[in-house]
């Protein structure tokens, strides 16, 4: 599929380590990630640029708000699981995830 323009942090680390050092054109070999093998064609490389704090402020605010929300939901779910009196289903608490087994 077509990825379009990508920047650091938008894909998995093992993909980024390999794709950002490629020259323009078809990669000499497939790139292996946890999702399989990828044939990559780099159409155009565009160097990154430094951004001012003012340029980043909205994205930082959105990130911190979303992070705080995820943490609050995680804390709430952990409390519910710890207080639950449920039989027939095992609930496992992982660091950031709660799932039923």
Describe the protein.
The protein folds into two domains: 47 residues, no CATH class; 48 residues, no CATH class. The protein is 38% helix and 16% strand. The protein is flat and about 60 Å long. It has a two-stranded antiparallel sheet. It contains two helices and six strands, in the order αββββαββ. Strand 2 and strand 3 form a beta hairpin. The protein has 101 residues and is α+β, with helices and mostly antiparallel strands. The longest helix is centred in the last third of the chain and has 31 residues.
List the helices and strands and how they pair.
Elements: H1 13-19, E1 25-26, E2 31-33, E3 36-38, E4 41-42, H2 53-83, E5 91-93, E6 98-100
Antiparallel strand pairs: 1-4, 2-3, 5-6
Short description:
The protein has helices at about 15-20, 55-85; strands at about 25, 30-35, 35-40, 40, 90-95, 100.
